[in-house]
Amino acid sequence: MKRIVIDGRIIASSTGRYVERLIHYLEILDKENKYFILVPKKDLNLYPLKNPNFKYVACDIPNFSFKEQLDLIKVIKSLNPDLVHFTMPQQPLLYNGKRVTTVHDLTILKTYNSDKNWIVFHIKQLVAKFLFKRIAKLNDFIITPSEFTKKDYIKFSKIDPKKVFVTYESAENLSEKEAIYKPLNNQKFILYVGQQSDYKNIKNLILAFDQYRKDNPKSKVKLVLAGKINKATEKNLNFVNSSNLTFKEDIVFTNFVKDEELVWLYKNAICYAFPSFMEGFGLPGLEAMVYNLPVISSNQTCLPEVYQDAAIYFDPYDIKDIQNKIEEIISKKELRDKLIKNGNKLLKKYSWKKMAKETLEVYKKALDN
Questions:
Q1: Residue 282 burial (C-beta neighbours within 10 Å; 0-12, 13-18, 19+)
Q2: Predicted TM-score (pTM) of this structure
Q3: Which is nearest to 30 in space by CA: 6, 54, 11?
Q4: Taking the CB of residue 322, how many other CB atoms lie within 10 A of it?
């Protein structure tokens, strides 16, 4: 029996879906090894464990902090692990045991979020650049969620390609329950779900939507931006409120919605729009396909690799191109039907259980290395 530590401090974040699904299926797949999952104290009861060989360990050490470099080593060593899986690149560089790290994307190295403090963000970015290069040497293996991210990371870090493994993520039903999101009942709408940082390119989506409505005056379609309102969301909300957009009243910021309401939004939208400049995998588009929602997507980074023929693509820098794809998807039912059919086929290629199985194989390679 080996002792494996999983750093799951991000379990309650948007990327935490990866951590939660990994643990869920490892519980099913691995009855032999013992696992210790580091999570913040507030998240100890977020996802109950079922396998007696799995145990949560409270760990309130912040990401990208001095404590992470010093105190986290003490926490890890107290568990006497044979292997540590860091589910994000941030980790104590002085830890000298076997380790595997998941690099989801290189967004922090290549983008700037204007809702952040400029000085703090750029200091964090410099630290991240050093960290991303250093972990290429310290880790036994690196895991990425797409071939694009693998190639991107190899180019940046100069790591041996044989040390990098791709484990594709997946999408599943968010909730067995469904609840009407009442403000949009009986409405037609385009849906976006998630963060609204600058690189998500929400501003261009808003501008393209407004122009679509101007050119199609009989259309009653709304644009729905679902997700918790934070500083990044407030910036887009202020842009809409202070702009001279013609149809600003039809741009809806939902704030936080429950999973059962999100299911209803996915099921009742006309299409899902994903205008991002950069992604490591692009999970929201796959989640939309679970609910038979056709997808229009940016043609950048990993998205054509992941969505294949189950989406139509636009240049996210070209507002007119985004507008054209909005018009095309709304006006052509046969196109929507084709994308839904292709989406159903595509989903069969992805599996969280397969991802966990492939991750377990990486663990075994590291332990035998």
A1: buried
A2: 0.94
A3: 54
A4: 26
